[in-house]
Here is the input.
Amino acid sequence: MDASILLALRDPAGVPFYPVVFQALYVLTWALHAAFVLLALGSMGLSIVGTFKQKSDPIWKVMNPHLIQTGKISISILIVLGVAPLLFTQVIYDPNWYVANTLSGMWVFIFIYTLIVGYIMYYWYYYANKKIEGGGKLIGIISFAILVFAGILMHNFAVTSIMPNDWMQMYAPNGVVDTSGWTFNMEIIRLAFMVSLAVPVVGIFLQNYSRFLSTRADFSKEFVDYTASLGTKLGVVGLLISAVTFALWMLQIDYLLHPLSLAIVVGVVVLLLLVKQNKNSYITTGVLVVVALLISAMRELIRFDIMANLGYSIYEYPVNLEIPSIVMFLFTFLIMGGVGVAWLLTMAWKVGKNQGVFDGSKDVAVTKLGNYTLAIMVLWMVVYFGWGMFILFNNIL
Ligand code: HEM
Here is the structure.
């Protein structure tokens, strides 16, 4: 692929801020997306196993509705968090993203409907299971398969977008233009590694779940011990599977001895030890976050190298500084997002820790954070719409 074609595909308006910032935000937000993808697939997958045990086993009877609920919420979060890396990708790697979306246009349409149908069926599964203990098995399995398929489609877009040398062959195989939009590419080992991470993620989630509930008198010691030990088993086995698939992936693309790859291997070994001991799963989760960021950085490194070798460096993307947009973005993401999420998390934590009904209006921290969130949102709306209207009328009047 000629670099001039890639450069011509860039946005002539340039990027509104320094590309390295978008790159860092891409790495951060993809890691967040992946965290909830893995939690959704892991908890949903485990809940399907649970539907077979739920009727006869008192522990699964309590745990399974929680797993189903975790999957349900995680899907909505993964969708929201998927938008952010999507935006950053199309800012700095727009040639890649749009070519992949054109070549695989039909799959892009299918992706949207896959997600809608898969998520609606998840609700069906949720309600069926709520109505009858152990209910919704078949619907749950179908919904799970559909959502895994959504991940496979996402993988196709990511992989196609980093194959610029093959784009021409995909667009016009043997010189005959193919506008069907059915291009589909997979790298089985890369995909297997990504999806396998769902097992250790749900394992560490269960360790946290057990630790969190251990302070509540209405959850028996037997329940707390069982969930912790199940979490440990899943975490250890899952990490071993992920470690092997990761090494195979790195070997395949010749990155195994790269410092970043070695850092991931060290991270996985540390995780393995922490999960096995299960002394403090909250610390394990902190290490998991670091490893997730490293994996996200690895994906970015692979793409960056492929493109740099072709003469396309994101660092040379023309910059057309637009400070107000960046200020607005940072304000929205860090301040509004930060305070809002802190409010929701504080409330969720206290609801879970509290026995009986929790009244947020009587809790100082929850009330304060709630009031701040509301005030910041009102201010945000005034600024956002006021500013938009001002620019609009300033330009047209
Ligand atoms: C159940 C639904 C989904 C699943 C299971 C899923 C899973 C995945 C996986 C496994 C990858 C990594 C692919 C790879 O690197 O090989 C990925 C990447 C990504 N996903 Fe998702 N995803 C889902 C929904 C979404 C949605 C709704 C969005 C956007 C709104 C989104 C945005 C992204 C983006 C931007 C990437 C990175 C693409 C790139 O780097 O080229 N995902 N997703």
Summary: The chain has a mean pLDDT of 96.
